[in-house]
Amino acid sequence: MFYFTITVLTSHLVAAQDWNGYTTSSFQDQEKMEAMLLQSMDFPSYREHLKKLTERPHIAGTPANEKVADYMAKVMEGAGMKVDLYPYDIYMSTDGGTSSIDLVTPIRLPLNQQEYIMPEDPFSSDLTLGKGWNAYSGSGDVTSTVVYANYGTKEDFEKLTEMGIEIKGKIVIARYGGNFRGYKAKFAEQYGAAGLIIYTDPADSGYMKGLVYPNGVYYDESAIQRGSLLTTDYEGDPLTPFEPSLPLDGKKKIKRMDPSEASLHTIPVLPIAYGAAKEIFARMNGKVVPSGWQGGLPYTYRLEGGKEFTVRVQVDQKKDFTRINNVVGTFKGTEYPDEWIILGCHYDAWAFGATDPNSGTAMLLSLSEALGKMVKEGHSPKRSILIAHWDAEEHGVIGSSEWVEQMRDALGAKAVAYLNFDGGVSGKNFGAASSPTLKGLVTEMAQKVDYPYTDKTLYDQWRGTKETPSIGNLGGGSDHIGFYMHVGVPSLSGGSHGPTLYHTNYDDFHFYETYVDPEFKMGGTIGQWAGLMALRMANAEVIPYDIKRYATDLKGHFENAIKKIQQFDSGFKGFEKVDKAIAVLEKNTTVLDAALSKALSGDKLSKKQLTSINQQLIALEKSFIDEKGMYYGSWYKSLYASTDPFSGYASWILPGLEYEISLTSTDRLEEWDQRYAAAIESLANKILVLANSLP
């Protein structure tokens, strides 16, 4: 799940372009359409969809998840959408297999691996709930002494080495937070660990934060964060990089790697709760941890357990080819059916998935019905609106990545935008992250929606006491990755967030209706916002991208990068070629803005001209797609944004530079000056060609 793991950039709200993509007459019609959408949203339906979606735990590849897919397809077909299934065979596990974690010496004590049954929460006694587990763990049975690695980040393992702590052959225990859990496993294995235990510390989510579940929203002593460990240098199925993992029994055969070639983890890894972890920390007797490493358990945290204290970790997790299915519904555009606005959220979950992801799933189902009412009344969108429900996201952003690989060429030519709503209604606090060209749309549509718990708009509630709200930059962790970072489709992730029992067995309907949004008003609210964005893009004569935002954001990002480089190279003067390219981009953008405003005010553009203009606009973001890709993984082709390859969640803006900064290296800065300048020049040239083609 994405869960708002974004780098926040305080934005200056750029007013919508004067031309905003519409002629005067068509914009009046559009405002009527948008008012109709606001009225069509059935707020109570959101609750019913969420309740149905979360009846049972539904892990990817299980029969329970297939039932969820069937339900979604039925709802979308009922709304009038054409529904297509996209099946793939993925190399993965659908359960944790067999596992155990025990203290061995000086006492024998098996540790708890599953949440308690709570009388207050009827879902907690579901017989299909399972132990905590990590997908793509290695299998093994190891007994050894213990090393504490704080959050298990790259810097934490380097610190242990500096302090002379031997990791090889030991079992590492690390707390959740700081990076993607898969990197904890990757670094542990790199440093020679025999096994890894990951736990949630009460200082991060537990009694140190406030009341614990069921009396509050924080992890109790039995709550376990599940999650995937997949850390290949590409997204999707681990055996089919760059290619869709089409069904093994299908007509088209895809070459698959041998699992031994896929750099999967080999050491056993298990997640536990802090109630189990305390049994380990209570018995450790090595050196006291450095500043910042002490957690919230009532013991002095130590780096080692000592020679007499041993722990056993046993995992036998089978992996095999497993069928997954993306479910994609389409309202076909009446005028430009081959231009797509895509909205999506995954539907597989670690257990019930009430906040993550199915709050977003339920919202999209309600939105499907609202749009369907309009279509049945004769108000179809001019461009196609696709609503996609992705499978196997929790195993490593798999379903959406496979679809992007399968549809790569079509997306490059047809996709106007991708809007992601993973866990999109998981609280009452609104927020969003997006690529530059969608930031104006995000804020403008938020001004048209009422926030249900105050007399403010969604926008005003979002900005609070600030003049303008903060819009994030897209990082990793969810289904926008393939669209934005692999093929260059402008993207956003957003919605409302709040308390979460992330990836635990307690993320259920009882938790949602008790703590997340008891009044069930945010589902319809976010549905209105999402629907307005989709309709605004679907019906505009000219796609209403915020083109000016490119130069504005690029300036700020390069300034930030230069400051970081100067911290280890005080003589660095900056990127000369890039500066010149941005200056040209800024100038050309102004020319295009004026030209589009004039062309639309004349109301004389033919359908052929509009098609050409929009094809050129769709091509703009592709200026940042570099076939060479990143040095840490060529699957990541966007020069503009990428997942941080060391944390797995954070946003790397200008990732080519961020990678050099992470290495404190200046060796390739000249190369990156050339590559970035070439991309920006390409963008500037496309903009000027478009401006000059207008009447």
Task: Write a compact overview of the structure shown.
35% of the residues lie in helices and 17% in strands.
Characterize the structure shown.
- With 695 residues, the chain is α/β, with parallel strands linked by helices.
- It has 3 domains: 33-93 and 321-539, Aminopeptidase; 98-229 and 265-318, Glucose Oxidase, domain 1, CATH 3.50.30.30; 547-693, Transcription Elongation Factor S-II, Chain A.
- The chain is 35% helix and 17% strand.
- The protein has 19 helices and 22 strands.
- Strands 2, 13, 14, 15, 16, 17, 18 and 20 form an 8-stranded mixed beta sheet that branches. A 4-stranded antiparallel beta sheet has the order 4-3-12-6, with no helix packed on it. The protein has a 4-stranded parallel beta sheet with strand order 7-8-9-11.
- Strand 14 (336-346), helix 7 (358-376) and strand 15 (383-390) form a beta-alpha-beta unit.
- The longest helix is centred in the last third of the chain and has 27 residues, at 576-602.
- It is globular, with a radius of gyration of 25 Å.
- The two termini are 46 Å apart.
- It holds the Pfam family TFR_dimer.
Question: Main β-sheet: number of strands, strand sense, barrel status?
Answer: 8 strands, mixed
- Unreliable stretches (pLDDT < 50, length at least 5) are 2-17
Tally of individual domains: 3
Task: Output the CATH class name of the largest domain.
Answer: Alpha Beta
Percent of residues in helices: 25-40%
**How far from one another are the termini?**
46 Å
Mean pLDDT: 95
Tell me the total number of β-strands.
22
Question: Pairing-aware structural class of the strands and helices?
Answer: alpha/beta
CATH topology of the largest domain: Aminopeptidase
CATH architecture of the largest domain: 3-Layer(aba) Sandwich
